[in-house]
Structure formats: structure tokens, C-alpha cells
Here is the input.
Amino acid sequence: MLGTFQQSNLRIEVDASASQIGDSLLRPACFRQWLAPQTFSAGLPERLQEGVVFMSWIGPIAIRHQVDKVEPNGMRLLMSQGIDGFHEWHWGDGWVQSSLEGISLLPLNLGQTLSLLRLRLFLAKQAKK
Here is the structure.
């Protein structure tokens, strides 16, 4: 794999319950909204579970994701192709934390920061409904 080893841990406060955050991260119908313009393969289950494998694309760059672990307040994705590494999520009432580690040509910290900000905006819009 070409690229640089990168590691980033970010935690933000959000105005949402742990169950709302978990739904936003584990339900493809939700994460497709806040992760746009990143696109995802078809045929995903209603909710991610251990063993699910799917693809995503950031422009022409494909990333393979395998759901390694799903817990009540966390999940871990193993990634390959465009990013070789893992992405862990942990959440609770009012907060979400993202830990990302991998080798890639992509600027992982920038993408992670933008994703968390988009998640915060998505949850804020959901709270207004």
C-alpha cells in the first residue's frame, strides 16, 4: 500500500442521545446522508452487524470496509484498498469519539474532522424534526 501511516483520535460533543448517535453510525440509510458525497455499495442491511462487508468511494478511490465489532456503544471497521487500517467509533449521551489509524494517500485527519462535523449537523437537524 502506498501512502503514509496516519493516526487520529477525535471526540466531539453532540446534542443527541447515545441511541440517536448509534443509529446514525450503524444505519446505512442515515450514514449515507451525512457522509455524502462519499458513496456506498448497494445491498447493505438495515443495520450494520459484525461480518458485513461493503465498499465506499471517495471520488475514484475505493475503500473496502469490514464490520469487525459492534457493541451497544461502539463499533470497529477494518479497512483496505484506499485506506489500510481501522476506524473505531465510541459514543454515549452527548458525545462521539472517532479513532482512525491506517496507511493512505488520503488526508485521514481532515476527512475524519469533516465527517464528525457533518455528523454533528445531521444530528442537530434530526433534533429539530
User: Anything to note?
Assistant: The domain at 4-128 is CATH 3.30.530.20 (Alpha-D-Glucose-1,6-Bisphosphate; Chain A, domain 4). The chain has a mean pLDDT of 95. The longest strand covers residues 61-71. Strands lie at 4-13, 39-40, 53-58, 61-71, 74-81, 84-92, 95-104.
